[in-house]
Amino acid sequence: MLSAVTRSNWIRPSVLAVYLVAWTLLLVIPDPLETLGLKPVVSADELEEFVGPVSYGVHVAGYFILGALIASLEIRDAPRWLTAGLWLGGVAHGALTEFVQSFVPSREGDLWDFAADVAGVLLGALIGRWVFGPPGKKLTERPQTETRNAS
Asked: Most CB atoms closer than 10 Å: which of 27, 87, 96, 108?
């Protein structure tokens, strides 16, 4: 049986990898709502008014999760450039998916979407660092409280 420390060393990177693949696919397929089996609850004309704000919110939320997942990784004694590089990788992912969207039917790359991606990664990184601690002092390195077995 794996210990809690060993389990967390592979679970978080695995969750990050699965999330990254799923998020990438949703960003580059022609119609993600149709693919997920969802239908808009408003008409096409009404939808045009909401696409911008909703799209930006989705981008911020999606990249917030990415930034927070990166912050949750347990990288022991990691130099700052490595953790900064991971978050910059999240920003690069946003730039790359916006570029790819410009070649996908019914999608378009947008600088405002990219700005929302960057905002999401930064918010996720900041709040993730607050929740999970700075890269040099991860959960496995924090002092453990004593637990007693009830006999």
From this structure: 27
